[in-house]
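ERR on first pass: missing label on line 2. Operator R.T. fixed the label and resubmitted. Corrected input:
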Amino acid sequence: MDVKHIAKQTSKTLISYLTYQAVRTVIAQLAETDPPRSLWLQQFTSRENVQDGERYLEALFREQQDLGFRILTVREHLAEMVADYLPEMLRTGIQQANRQQRCQQLERMTQVSDVSVEGSPPPESTTD
Amino acid sequence: MDVKHIAKQTSKTLISYLTYQAVRTVIAQLAETDPPRSLWLQQFTSRENVQDGERYLEALFREQQDLGFRILTVREHLAEMVADYLPEMLRTGIQQANRQQRCQQLERMTQVSDVSVEGSPPPESTTD
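pass 2 clean. output:
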């Protein structure tokens, strides 16, 4: 397990995700101040793939550079705001999600063993 | 800008991403110890969408519960390993990516103004 590589890839994914959130933020801000540009950015974003954040930004810079610069600023700001909370949120988030998955699975196993105990006679009627 | 909501969504995205990395890790481990199951998990993963980690796990639990439990353990382990590095990696990662985008854009702007200064005669000398 190459943890260093995984950490690097994880941070790349995070950056792309915050780019996407920055784009959404700017679209929402423009909807208040400049609706036609908000619409333009919305359409641009549905045309260009924002999953690869860096490529998306390069494309945006070619068309509307001030929006490009604005999104850089917003994503850096978002990163500053969320960075310190991430370790704790990730840890408790995964623990919670794991607990829930285990719980659900244990419930399913109990239900299964209730109805299909091996060697027991088939249920009397049940036509479906 | 709803930072709390963005932080929560970011941590959800992270959990899904680490689930995907856990799946890849288990596929690689099985390739060493039990190639047919590795292949099975690979095929299952290309069939089910791992982008929604929780749904993927629910589907996996219905088919091969021991693999489900194993992936829960691995993703929790991965989270433990990367969590503390994330704030720093995210900050420097975004700063680096932003610097690079700004640099590229400034280069493009310089090139454009070199060739298309409106109405002005071509520059006499100055090559840099």
